[in-house]
Design brief:
The complex is a heterodimer of chains A (267) and B (336). Chain A has 267 residues and is an all-alpha fold. Chain A has one domain. Chain A contains 11 helices and no strands. In chain A, helix 4 (73-103) packs antiparallel against helix 8, helix 7 (157-181) packs antiparallel against helix 10 and helix 7 packs parallel to helix 11. The radius of gyration of chain A is 21 Å and the shape is elongated. The two termini of chain A are 32 Å apart. In chain B, the strands form 3 sheets. In chain B, strands 5-6-7-3-8-9 form a 6-stranded mixed β-sheet, with helices on both faces. Chain B has a 4-stranded antiparallel β-sheet with strand order 11-12-10-13, covered by helices on one side. Chain B has 11 helices and 13 strands. Helices cover 31% and strands 23% of the residues of chain B. Chain B has 2 domains: 23-241, 3-Layer(aba) Sandwich (Rossmann fold), CATH 3.40.50.300; 248-315, Alpha-Beta Plaits, CATH 3.30.70. With 336 residues, chain B is α/β, with parallel strands linked by helices. Chain B has helices at residues 65-72, 94-98, 116-124, 133-139, 155-167, 185-200, 212-218, 236-241, 257-268, 293-306, 320-327, and strands spanning 27-36, 39-49, 54-58, 80-85, 101-104, 173-177, 204-208, 221-226, 229-234, 248-251, 274-277, 283-287, 310-314. Classes of the chains: A mainly alpha (267), B alpha/beta (336). The interface between A and B is large, with 42 and 56 residues.
């Protein structure tokens, strides 16, 4: 512990000065890098964000079991799988990681550093968006390269981006709501359970109108089906007005974010 | 503001003079109170820590140490009372305090998958002028474990990383919660030395610990907290000054019962005096006469006559540990 040449005085410099924080954006940027490195290091994160969506896309596009009518399966699937990718990153990954950070006292320790709470939140959102961008690129490249997918008539990039952002807000809100209120183990189970439920009921791989009536009514108000619907319209796989699904997503986003902000416990 | 020509109506009040930040105490706590569910955790606590001082906060578990420290760190709000850290209100000006205060929590608070070097570099980037993370890692003896995941570090290694995280921002004040807990004796000694060096550099250190050995060797001043109140405050010598002086000694071999009575009589010289075993291995404590030069002379003469060597001898008012137990007699876990 007393390595020669590493005098504490030399390390810490002259005494009697006032220590200052780094600019907020620099602290948030450093934290974003840490969030991304840790995500890449956790095998279960890669499984849920990349392996499962890519596997589902390739499998379901090649076995013709989906009731997609005259549509090519990939045209129906890609928007749904993109919605699943958003769910996996902003609900499952973010929620579970944050819940364990709370349990391990990481959030408390960071709270005692010059990184502000808004800086931490910005870092988490930036890393979520970076992972989603990677997921979108990988999924679209595979859909296009392997299944010959092309955007449908009347597709709209701005609509796709807005839908992805609002979906991220809604699911990140839900993830942080769970992470800030439940035990880490409960968040782990709950987020994974929701992932499965939303995969089946969220219009992700099964059209909502093929569900039994009651479940279909429930599915219509879930953020997953709203995101899938908006993405299908945005990618030209369905026609219709995207305003309804986007409004529903915004409502979910506002409600979960507000509730999370009010109930979040840092310890 | 009155016009410059009009005479002052009242004699000028000695206004809060523009004191430079460095003249103010590093920490000032006045009549601090905090209750959880009706039970007072901190109950009217007051103390000050001067700039550059190494100050130890002692107390049994549940005495209110952690609550007090967490209020200073800005984690909790006081119910009432005034708290200033480096002249700032940690509740309202948490952002300004956090850049100047380095803290070490009892539970590490590090990502299990993170590695010491990257987490130290991360924290360094939160500050405008941090210490060099790699050199600091070497200084705390973690260079070999720089890329080991946190979850497989030993308890002592985690503590050293916690200490490095506390000082990487080159803070003016560090708050260390149980800094040597879980360390082996070598790591403990090295950590004590590092803390002493911090103080020598002019960094103010607030230390909470159960290791009275840390406190005796390091602390400039000590506050003993009991049931949320200040039980005693002062230097080690001042705290021990409050205890009754007693003669204690250790001989190179234990005495027979008959010799014990003979020695007690020689020491008492007709007054009431009795010798008691004070732990194992030839340790004795004298009840009755208070230590004075003549008493020590009689003890030395008696021992010389029997060929006994006095290996250890003290006349101070007990040890810090005894004083601590005395001050917090009804509160410790054993007393509940």
């Amino acid at each position: 512990m007393n390595a020669p040449g590493t005098d504490l005085a030399a390390l810490l410099g002259p005494a009697g000065r006032t220590s200052r924080p780094a600019p907020a954006w620099r602290a948030a940027l450093a934290q974003t890098g840490m969030e991304l490195r840790l995500t890449a290091r956790r095998g279960e994160n890669l499984l849920v964000t990349l392996v499962i969506p890519v596997g589902l896309l390739l499998f379901l596009a090649s076995v013709s079991i989906l009731p997609t009518g005259g549509q090519a399966p990939v045209d129906f699937l890609l928007p749904g799988i993109l919605a699943l990718a958003v769910i996996s990153t902003s609900l499952v990954n973010l929620g579970i990681a944050t819940a364990y950070e709370r349990a391990y006292g990481v959030l408390k320790r960071l709270g005692g550093s010059p990184l502000s709470r808004s800086g931490l939140l910005a870092a988490k959102m930036a890393s979520v968006l970076a992972i989603e961008l990677l997921q979108a690129v990988v999924l679209i490249a595979i859909a296009a390269g392997v299944e010959g997918w092309r955007p449908g008539p009347g597709w709209s990039l701005p609509l796709v981006v807005v839908a992805l952002l609002l979906g991220t807000l809604a699911f990140a809100g839900l993830g942080l709501l769970m992470a800030g209120a439940l035990r880490a183990e409960a968040t782990l189970a709950g987020a994974n359970g929701l992932y499965l439920v939303l995969l089946l009921l969220g219009g992700v791989v099964l059209p909502v109108d093929h569900l039994p009536p009651l479940l279909a009514d429930l599915a219509q108000v879930l953020p997953a089906s709203a995101l899938s619907d908006a993405l299908r319209i945005g990618l030209g796989a369905a026609s219709g007005d995207a305003l309804g699904p986007l409004a529903l997503l915004a409502g979910w986003g506002a409600a979960t974010a507000l509730l999370a902000a009010r109930t979040f416990r840092w310890e | 503001m009155s016009a410059p020509t009009s005479p002052p109506v009242f004699a000028p009040v000695p206004d809060a003079a523009p004191v430079s930040a460095d003249d103010r105490p590093a920490i000032s706590v006045r009549d601090l109170r905090k209750a959880y569910g009706g039970r007072a955790a901190v109950d009217g606590l007051s103390f000050e820590v001067a700039r550059g001082e190494l100050f130890a906060l002692l107390g049994p578990n549940g005495a209110g140490k952690t609550t007090t420290v967490e209020i200073l760190e800005g984690y909790r709000r006081a119910d009432s009372g005034a708290v200033r850290v480096l002249g700032l209100d940690p509740g309202r000006e948490a952002g300004a305090v956090r850049a100047r205060l380095g803290l070490m929590l009892q539970a590490g608070g590090v990502y299990p998958q993170a590695r010491p070097r990257e987490i130290l570099r991360l924290f360094a980037r939160f500050y405008a002028e941090p210490a060099d993370p790699d050199a600091l890692l070497e200084r705390v003896g973690l260079a070999d474990a720089a890329t080991t995941r946190y979850k497989v570090l030993s308890g002592g290694q985690r503590q050293r990383l916690g200490l490095a995280l506390a000082i990487v921002g080159r803070p003016e004040l560090v708050v260390l919660d149980e800094p040597t807990a879980g360390m082996d004796p070598h790591a403990k000694a090295a950590t004590r030395q590092l803390i002493a060096e911090l103080r020598d550099r002019g960094v103010t250190v607030l230390l909470t610990t159960h290791e009275l050995a840390d406190v005796e060797r390091l602390a400039d001043r000590i506050a003993v907290i009991d049931r949320g109140r200040l039980a005693a405050i002062g230097t080690t010598a001042e705290l021990l000054g409050g205890a009754t002086r007693r003669l204690r000694f250790r001989l190179d071999r234990p005495l027979e019962a008959v010799d014990l009575a003979d020695l007690a009589a020689a020491l008492g010289q007709g007054t009431e005096a009795s010798l008691h075993e004070d732990g194992a291995g030839g340790r004795y404590r004298l009840d009755g006469p208070l230590p004075d030069p003549a008493l020590l002379g009689r003890l030395a003469a008696w021992c010389a006559g029997r060929g006994l060597l006095i290996e250890d001898l003290r006349t101070a008012g007990g040890t810090l540990e005894e004083r601590f137990l005395e001050l917090t007699a009804d509160t410790g876990e054993a007393g509940r």
